Amino acid sequence: MSQTTTRVTNSISKASSTQFSSVTALSDHQLLTLCTHYGSQAKLWKQKFLGLLPEVERRKLYQAQGFSSLFEFAAKVGGVSKEQVKVVLSLYSRFEAMPALKQALVSGEVSVNKLARVVSVVTPQNQEFFLNQTTLLSKSALETLVRDVKRLPGQNKKPNKTEKIPQSEELNLASDVRQLLLDMQNKGIDHNQVLRELLKERNERIQGKKHSLAQEVKQIDDAAKQTNRHSRYIPQKVKTILKQEYGDKCAQETCTNKAANIHHTRRFGLNPSHNPLFLAPLCTQHHEIAHAVDVKVMERRRSTQSIKIVG
Question: Judging by beta carbons within 10 Å of its beta carbon (0-12, 13-18, 19+), is residue 276 exposed, middle or buried?
Fold first, then answer.
């Protein structure tokens, strides 16, 4: 048991021993610790209760206990709404050919809300992948992953009517630029071709700068190897070139969210380098998805979040 876990456990035990004597005697730390602990346990037991309902329904166990329906049983025994019961029964039916997800539902290992988010894209072939993602990703990141999967070529899933699909907007051209383009058009000059050439030149210039910067970063990396001291600070030159290439948006092509993190596509712990060729600005959700393949990273992040909440 880690020192952090031991400290939290001892704090919970100490707070629990005094709770029944006088709640007002608890310190702020003890009160927050108990709220966090009991709150997380409440969620867990609710998940487990929900997972039992399909079997309660199969046996009609609620009738033997004098309840008129499964909905009444769930509401009075577990404080669960009719809508939640319907979702559980629907998921149980749809997971009939997917034992991994069915077991996760029945055991309460994964929340119903998360399972409901992946049901539209999960198949017997990818069930293990999505089960893993439900245990690693937050609900918002899971929604983003599902949205991305739906947009993959060959997916025949109908988009959710409430889903926001990136739409092209009218170009916000300055009046002088608009006039210059109109002048070109009036002269019979193909302004579209001119713009294509300019944009191509711009992209080539950015890529050239990135490769040049990559060489500068390599020299920094080689020097750092000698002292075994690699800085996690990303040089401003690298940040600037990434901004020129991607703007303020997430690098994921179909994403319209603003970038929140610069992601190392090659794990920094294994390749301590800020080579711009292997960096990409990502939104919070896509950054989480990118790290979901690295269980150690996710576990470390969860541990840090737990310390912040409890400590």
Answer: buried
